[in-house]
Input
Amino acid sequence: QVQWVESGGGLVQAGGSLRLSCQASGIFFSINDMGWYRQTPGTQRELVAHITRGEITDYADSVKGRFTISRDNAKRTVYLQMNSLKPEDTAAYYCNADIQTRGNWRGMIYWGQGIQVTVSS
Output
């Protein structure tokens, strides 16, 4: 019932910028916390950035000062602005949200399929 429309990935040179976005589609009542995770082959998926309903944000130490998470509730969208990209940022990025639906009034985590970001040296 809830699906993500994802965009913004690609190949960039070190020092460049990208903006990822995930828009939730479907019928649901509320979007609670949202976040971005990333994963590389052979590694566990890790939190990159998190934003609450009240727009309190938190970031992994590795991206602080470079990445910014934001949300547009009217558009049901979460963004990740990535500046000063490094080759170490190369990964598949996954959007994530806790969403309340008719069948999950407590909220349920929905994951995007992944957006590939590749940063060249």
Summary: The mean pLDDT is 96. The radius of gyration is 14 Å. Residues 102 and 109 are 14 Å apart (CA to CA).
